[in-house]
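Morning F.,

Quick status update on the modeling queue. The single chain you submitted on Monday has been processed. Sequence for confirmation:
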Amino acid sequence: MEIVQLKVDKREEVGRGPARRMRRRGIVPAVAYGMSRETVHVSLPAAELERVLQTAEGANVLIDLEIPDTPKQENMASIIKAVQRDPVTREPLSADFQWISLEEKITLAVPVEVTGTAPGVVEDGGALQQQMHTVEVSCLPTDIPERIVASIDGMQIGDSLHVSDLEAISGVEVLAEADDVLLSIGAPIREEDLEVRVDEGLLEQLVDLEPGEELVEEEAEELVPEEAEEAEEAAEEEAAEEQPE
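Structure tokens below.
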């Protein structure tokens, strides 16, 4: 796997105020930690973070993190451990980078990519039901696969694809149980079945009503960007304090 170069800046100021000012300028506050190294507070342009995340490896990309006045260690890289985003705009609010050894295996989730054509879907109108969108694996960082391929070629209605059906990848150990179902082909759902399911859902709500209580449609809780931002900043500060030195 290719290692992506990423330059970041050190930041001396931490806390909600400085973080908010950085975000207004399109800068994302972040921390780098791990491998018994001192936690470093850094920052980088939001566009650069998105560029790295949009590579073929996505969130599992290996990064050569360049921090001013911070010496590099041989056979070491970093991965993006977490990215916190605004719940409304989806703009990145903060990021965590973790140092890892290129010579030690790591455990991580790899996305499942469905390929092929299932006659049960194309010819018989069945529905593809994907139970697992990622699969946990163990491997050396340089062996991390971009994706786990799940082929549905030849699958009919009622067929299931299990973890044991996946093709083996050299150097990669799949940690999921062999009999775990990745996906299946379900029978087509008729319109009248959908109506029955909706009616049953309303009936369940009516049964649970208290005396004198009216059935009302629930509304989604409105997200307040300012509150979400403060919560993310508080989480960032807490995470930075808890990182091992």
